[in-house]
Amino acid sequence: MKYSQATDYALHAMLHLVTAVPNKPVGVQLLAEKLGVSQTYLSKMMTKLVKAGLIQSAPGANGGYRLRRKQEEISFLDIIHAIEGTASLFECSVNHGSECLIQQVVVDAERQMEQYLENKKIADLAKLMKTE
Amino acid sequence: MKYSQATDYALHAMLHLVTAVPNKPVGVQLLAEKLGVSQTYLSKMMTKLVKAGLIQSAPGANGGYRLRRKQEEISFLDIIHAIEGTASLFECSVNHGSECLIQQVVVDAERQMEQYLENKKIADLAKLMKTE
DNA sequence: CCATTAACGACTTTATGTATCCATAATAAC
DNA sequence: GTTATTATGGATACATAAAGTCGTTAATGG
């Protein structure tokens, strides 16, 4: 079980958008160059972020992407869910009569991780980077 | 990102071993029947559990598997690690000069989940099932 | 010896992630 | 309006991992 590289790229792309000049769109070509990944591949992830309502896109000259919400309101979990989906990490495939106690435990554990990721905003990282 | 079905099977198999008669080995054929999975496939996971030191195996007639440790000392995390491995869920593939702050956040989040799974023992579930 | 049972390796199949290419649509600048 | 720019979408190829099967070997009890 691993987070996909796509999630890695999306998180880094969002961090770049946060630290970019406000309201000035950033093109996928620039982002792709900074991350060392192809434009066409990265654009798929950007499209997912758009559909999740995290960023806004603008076509045409001087177009690109910019944040849709305040940066304090965009959590790690938002980004991860946009790329990976929101399905549970664990689903019991054993056919027992009752509810699966094992699944309850693992899902509860997953909830612990998600709470942590929900409380972490990319704005937190942006602050850290400025003081370095 | 998902936990593999193999992990699901392993967790259920361990739960069966905990609730079985102590010190009497349980064969893979019986376990496989209860879980609705083939013997040969399940035996791969059982072998991993043996190598992880969670259970003991005995070949030959009346052989099978039984717990190696006390059931209060076998956690969900032990079983999951035995099947999935212990590698981190997230590894940054972007080439920046410094340490990856994003990776730190996600790894910390993962640690939250692991702590929860470490504190949950299969003995806890066994108790629950007896009272039902 | 014989039946039973775990362990191991080779293999097939299927699904998912990674990545590229090309066509299309929308917008801004001229 | 024309052109350059930029995002979006579909098709496709490739690599990797998961899911599952089969046959063989090895060890043990009766």
TrEMBL record, chains A, B:
Report the domain of life of the source organism.
Bacteria
Residue stretches spanning the membrane: none
Under Pfam families, the record lists: Rrf2 (PF02082)
- Name-wise, this protein is Rrf2 family transcriptional regulator
Gene3D superfamilies listed in its UniProt record: Winged helix-like DNA-binding domain superfamily/Winged helix DNA-binding domain
